[in-house]
Design a protein that fits this description.
Distance between the termini: 26 Å
Shape: globular
Strand order of the largest sheet: 15-12-14-13-17-18-16
Number of helices: 15
Low-confidence stretches: 1-31, 34-41, 299-306
Structural class: alpha+beta
Mean pLDDT: 86
Oligomer: single chain
């Protein structure tokens, strides 16, 4: 681990830790850091920790090394920059008081959900206070006639759909991990269902946000859950994908969808990646209302219990009435057959569908099995669908030329795909090659008028690519928005910008 951190620092994956705001602490009644011995590790003063306990209770504050380390990393290779203290608030009033307390003392604030991010978004690069929002896990209000629900940040997508089981409604955004819903809002999450139901940006109606100084904002107005509006700036959209750099999301009003009458899933194998991607494009061009299209690279089915050949494989799912599904299946088979598909496997029953999709959802573990003992590094890009065949073929060639071990999986129905690479964290040269591959992939996507990330976010790892994507004016506009809402730069510092 120490070698990985040294390699990451050498590659500029994260800045050196420093409390640049300490000099400003002289004007406050007491300093949040102990002054004895200089405190190179940024250890908080007993007085400040007691102030946190006064807000949330002693049992909901921890400075234990194990808790701090756990909250200093996500599922990415950016490890580990622990916060100085972890706090578990129980309600929005406590979150507001915590934010005001931290801001008054110039202490960084890092929101934390389930920790399933992939770009180092929870690393405490300047120390500070990690606010773990998972204890706020209530479903506050269901509006079935309006197809909406209000959830607290600790509610996960699986917990919500379990709650909705008998309502005839569901929340379809599925990034794979059982992430917290407000964390999914913060990262602008997506998933295989996006081809039909959209991403988090399309399914958030309103947000309750605690701003850096403790003020409470309802982005669409208190209690409102309308489907459309032309009233002023889109404040809700501003916070979707903000990665905790503008405020703490303490409640989200989400758009729900009717559970389809019938669902059919399918897999089919292709002679090449080009043929699989061409099939995806042709299905969408033919206006076949497919709900999900995912893709596995050759060899990944070996890890699953499917009797699939070692070949590029598409996973498809259709939602609708029985009659409509029959027509969709027929048309999809015709298109896939025209592109050389073979070995169709259709599944209507829920258990059969879960078995088929298990291979796609276990792609991460299938990749890890390619090189036991190594760590996984996942990166993603998204391009216009018409450019998808080109970039996938190029990326396959790049992966082979790099000498790295890895695979490609995709939510190819919306032009988004992922590369999962295996890396020995003790091998600094291999870490460097993995990072170089990720940058090259991002720049390939940008050259094809795509984006450097379809759903993982920017975090620590893609800041330079973001600058190249949006340009100087775009970056300056983002910095101005950040400075207006967070003038001290304390909200999840070191991320995105």
């Amino acid at each position: 681990m120490a070698s990985l951190l040294r390699a990451a620092a050498t590659l500029g994956l994260f800045p050196r830790r420093g409390y640049c705001s300490r000099g400003a602490q002289l004007s406050v009644p007491w300093c949040p850091w102990d002054s004895v011995g200089g405190n190179a590790e940024g250890e908080l003063s007993k007085g400040f920790v007691e102030a946190l306990k006064a807000v949330v209770g002693s049992s909901h504050v921890s400075t234990a090394a194990a808790h701090r380390e756990q909250h200093g990393h996500d599922e990415s290779m950016h490890r580990c920059q622990p916060p100085d203290v972890v706090v578990w608030p129980q309600n929005v009033e406590q979150v507001s008081r915590l934010a005001a307390l931290c801001y008054s003392q110039g202490l960084p604030i890092i929101p934390f959900g389930t920790g399933t991010g992939l770009e180092g978004g929870v690393c405490a690069v300047q120390g500070g206070v990690c606010i773990n929002l998972t204890h706020m896990d209530r479903i506050l209000k269901l509006n079935p006639e309006d197809f909406s629900v209000v959830v607290e940040p600790g509610v996960t997508r699986k917990a919500l759909n379990t709650y909705l089981r008998d309502s005839g409604l569901w929340f379809p955004v599925d990034p794979g991990a059982d992430a917290s819903l407000c964390g999914m809002v913060a990262t602008g999450a997506s998933g295989t269902n996006a081809v039909r139901y959209g991403t988090m940006r399309d399914n958030v109606l309103n947000l309750e946000v605690v701003l850096p100084g403790g003020r409470l904002l309802h982005t669409a107005g208190l209690g409102r859950h309308f489907r459309k509006s032309a009233a002023g700036y889109n404040l809700t959209g501003l916070f979707v994908g903000s990665e905790g750099t503008l405020g703490l999301i303490t409640a989200a009003t989400l758009r729900l969808h009717p559970v389809p009458e019938a669902t059919v899933a399918a897999t089919c194998a292709f002679p090449s990646v080009q043929a699989a991607v061409d099939t995806t494009v042709h299905i969408l061009q033919a206006a076949v209302p497919v709900a999900r299209i995912g893709e596995l690279g050759a060899g990944q089915s070996r890890h699953s219990q499917l009797n699939c050949p070692v070949a590029p494989t598409l996973f498809l799912e259709f939602h609708g009435s029985e009659q409509a599904l029959a027509e969709q299946i027929q048309r999809a088979e015709e298109i896939a057959g025209h592109n050389g598909a073979s070995l169709f496997s259709w599944a209507k029953e829920a258990e059969e569908r879960r078995r088929l999709w298990a291979a796609r959802h276990s792609a991460w573990y299938a990749a890890l099995a390619l090189r036991p003992g190594c760590k996984g590094y996942s990166t993603d890009v998204c391009v216009p669908i018409s450019r998808l065949p080109e970039i996938l073929v190029q990326t396959k060639e790049d992966l082979k030329a790099s000498g790295l071990t890895g695979t490609i999986v995709g939510h190819v129905g919306d032009g988004n795909f992922h590369c999962i690479l295996l890396v020995d964290p003790e091998d600094t040269e291999e870490v460097r090659r993995v990072m170089a591959f990720g940058e090259q992939l991002g720049r390939r996507a940008l050259a094809l008028h795509g984006t450097c990330t379809g759903e993982h976010g920017i975090g620590l790892g893609k800041q330079q690519l973001l600058q190249e994507e949006v340009g100087a004016v775009g970056m300056e506009t983002m910095r101005q928005l950040k400075a207006m809402l967070d003038p001290q730069g304390l909200m999840n510092p070191g991320k995105v910008l």
